[in-house]
Amino acid sequence: MRDHFEIRDHDAAGRIGRLEVPRAGVTVETPALLPVVNPNVLTIEPRRLAEEFGAEMLITNSYIIRSTDRIRGRVLDQGLHEFLGFDGAIMTDSGSFQLAEYGDIDVTTEEIIEFQRQIGSDVATPVDVPTPPDVDRDRAERELETTRTALADAEAADTGDMLLNAPVQGSTFPDLREEAGRHASATDLDVFPVGAMVPLLNSYRYAEVVEAVRAAKRGLDPDAPVHLFGAGHPMMLALAVAAGCDLFDSAAYALMARDGRYLTVSGTEHLEEMEYFPCSCPVCAEHTPAELRQMDGGGTADRSAEELLAEHNLHVTFEELRRVKAAIRSGDLLQLVDRRARGHPAMLDGLRTLLDHADEIERTDPVSKDAFFYTSHESARRPEVRRHHDRLSRLAVPDRLLLTESDAPSDHEYDAVWRVKPPFGPFPRALSETYPLTAEVPERLDGAAQVAAAEGVASLADANPDSDLTLGHDDWAARALDAVPDRVETENLRHLGR
Ligand code: GUN
Ligand code: ZN
């Protein structure tokens, strides 16, 4: 891996970074969304993508350009930037997607990389094999071997200052993804797309998307820029960024518009069924759904309903991306993911899968940020809770210790009295004002927060087998009390009238 990526800020496994793209002479802020531009159908002029939507980078397909007689010569003459009218960074794909769709393409990695160089691409792609989900292991391994050869051919190519993608495949086998990530990372290629995600994304299999991303990331260098190939629905951006993705590409904005579909941060709606637009982008502010429906086939306005719908779709997508970046800056990305997870059950599966990897995410999660908000029982599984439990096992504990959710009793026989705050569990009062113990939690806590607090008590008890521990709890659920070790004496504060 060469050094073109700098990470500026972290939250969970998400980051704000800067990808230097030397051939374009620009540096792109990540997370970045690359609108997919079909070289034959410019739904929205690339110049407008930059000026009105803020796109710093886009992606187009060199294989389509190479196979289309009508444009190939012109793109070779003018160069891609002039042809498209875009002076930001341009990534090009190789035809792998067509390979996956049609089973065969008539170009090698060596040829298509040379073609990408000739048309002036800034980030080129070899012919990797996008192995679909759920195939048998033999096929996944065999195709991974072909992808490895493609990466080696890309490494051997004479590419000057053009960056190169090193796609990470492996179908739905996490160990193969991880191995592929490790192999890709060891090449001197530059950007690391997690591939063949489109079938999973199209069927909202977000739990498996997160598994694939996490597996690839375990193999990749932590500083590697990671692209989630084919992902650009605004609903899942926060989740994918929190899992560690830096680049996205959206064909969804244009493809969905073609079918009359309207994207939102909680899913996809049909223009046909809409009475109101919930959005305030220029398109939604100036039109009603009924007006857009009436435009169909009219062709009198300067833009068709499909183009306007595509513009709305892109506006909400970039808006969400800015919201994700702001969340990283203020340290509440996981709260944003939690909100998005309420929009669709498949997103909730994605969040729960991400939290299965809280130990990995904890490693890049800042130790201090804005207040932790407990907004759902998934909050009990956040990396901050786990980190607190790890820290508990390192704190010095006196012989006789009271852990209590209420204030310290005025007279008592303990050596010390610590606070207990679900979902974290016990801590010395001196830590009360430190992150994450300053958390805002609801008055009416759920069992998951109590169970997590009980696990904190267990962690403390395990690390201090010789201390006498007493727990004063506010009417905890039976399953939380079950998680408290037997040797810890418990008192229900409700029954004591405190
Ligand atoms: N576009 C969407 N998925 C893929 C992939 O796996 N590989 C390539 N090269 N392009 C893609
Ligand atoms: Zn809108």
UniProtKB/TrEMBL annotation:
One of its GO terms (cellular component) is cytoplasm. Binds 1 zinc ion per subunit. Zn(2+) binds at C279, C281, C284. Pathway: tRNA modification; archaeosine-tRNA biosynthesis. It catalyses: guanosine(15) in tRNA + 7-cyano-7-carbaguanine = 7-cyano-7-carbaguanosine(15) in tRNA + guanine. InterPro entries: ArchSynthase1/Queuine_TRR, TGT-like_sf, TgtA, tRNA_ribo_trans-like. Its EC number is 2.4.2.48. Substrate binds at D128, A196. GO terms for molecular function: pentosyltransferase activity; zinc ion binding. SUPFAM superfamilies: Pre-PUA domain (SSF88802), tRNA-guanine transglycosylase (SSF51713). It holds the Pfam family TGT. GO terms for biological process: tRNA wobble guanine modification. Keywords: Glycosyltransferase, Metal-binding, Transferase, tRNA processing, Zinc. Its cofactor is Zn(2+). The active site is at D93 (nucleophile). The keyword Transferase applies. Residues 13-345 form the tRNA-guanine(15) transglycosylase-like domain. Belongs to the archaeosine tRNA-ribosyltransferase family. NCBIfam families: arcsn_tRNA_tgt, tgt_general. Exchanges the guanine residue with 7-cyano-7-deazaguanine (preQ0) at position 15 in the dihydrouridine loop (D-loop) of archaeal tRNAs. This is tRNA-guanine(15) transglycosylase. It comes from Halorubrum persicum. The lineage of its organism: Archaea, Methanobacteriati, Methanobacteriota, Stenosarchaea group, Halobacteria. The gene is tgtA.
